[in-house]
Description:
By secondary structure, this protein is of the alpha/beta class. The protein has ten helices and 19 strands. Helix 2 packs across helix 4 (138-149) and helix 8 (277-286) runs parallel beside helix 9 (308-324). Bound molecules: S-adenosyl-L-homocysteine (SAH).
Amino acid sequence: MPLPPLILKKNEDRRLRAGHLWVFSNEVDTVRTPLREFAPGDPVEIQAHNGRFIGSGYVNPNSLICARILSRDPRRAPDRSLLVHRLNIALSLRERLYAQPFYRLAFGESDGLPGLVVDRYGGVLVAQLTTAGMERLKADIVAALEQVTKPSAILLRNDAGVRELEGLPPYTETAYGSVPDGVVIEEHGARFQVSLNGGQKTGWFFDQHDNRARMLRYVSGRRVLDVFSYVGAWGISAAVHGAREVQCVDSSAAALAQLAGNAALNKVSVATREADAFDALRELREAGEKFDVVILDPPAFVKRKKDLAAGREAYRRLNQLGMQLLERDALLISCSCSHHMAAPELLDAIQAAARHLDRDAQLLETGGQAADHPVHPAIPETAYLKAFYLRVVTL
Ligand code: SAH
């Protein structure tokens, strides 16, 4: 049965033809295809002004991004077999990248699966459905994941904030099998107990995998401060790789309790401080504390474009505080996962902080998101993570 059409205004198909997958509500010819006649998640065929097929996908009349393309092939409708096909292609990349099945299996738009994120923890999959269209396909997604990866369990962590933009309620659900409370994952020679039900996002930040590896050669014998530590992915790895002393700061008591368990699991000792990061950094400064390596891995300060001015200022203040805790010749690892805070802007903020403190910064290395979070070249929003490794010294 043909899908109902969603017709675009004249010339509004250009970005889609260049590879983007999103339709904004102001691009739709609402005289011919009124958006209000669709229910959230309805499948549609997206057509150019002249009726030419652009792609099939799903619609959400209540969202600014009112449709997303799932298929550009008129013979391939957005159904279970398409999901199986896409997941197989996604899986083949990850199997080439990693010897062990611990990674982001599907990264939304970049894997041709807009609205779906799946992390793999051995036999357990943790999925996030972030759009009404994917919510509608839930049964097919679960079946496709079962078919492609033969998991022991599938957990839906459908409690991400972005669901609000789609009018979707937050919930967590075991969709298949029985989900263990936690799983142990190994990274760069350290082991971590990860809580899948109670952790943040899907439980672990796979996107920083390569950036954490980049840190390791700087930490041996050093005094390290891990700010926004979560369960200790950076700090505990630093300790395992010979850091002389490690302190971790996070505002979440639950994360720090897990961090303490992870330190014990690796037989290292790490001090924790439950506090707002800005307060903790100020207190450490007042106490005259100094570190050889300071890691700043904050949550996104700029979630939407309109928050850019305030967010930029928060990054500047944070980096300035971090820098004030550095020894005379030391390393600042400064990350941002805000797409809207572009890499050059973050570097500018860091440089401004360095000048303010009359110090010299040398950029040694730059990292992005790991390869299991591929960037879609036509969709800038898929590039979000930056990590700068700066030597801060006085020349
Ligand atoms: N570095 C971690 C990921 C950090 S996620 C890793 O690689 O796994 C961001 C962390 O910041 C979360 O653990 C959250 O609890 C913490 N956080 C958020 N706001 C904070 C604040 N104002 N002060 C301190 N920690 C905060």
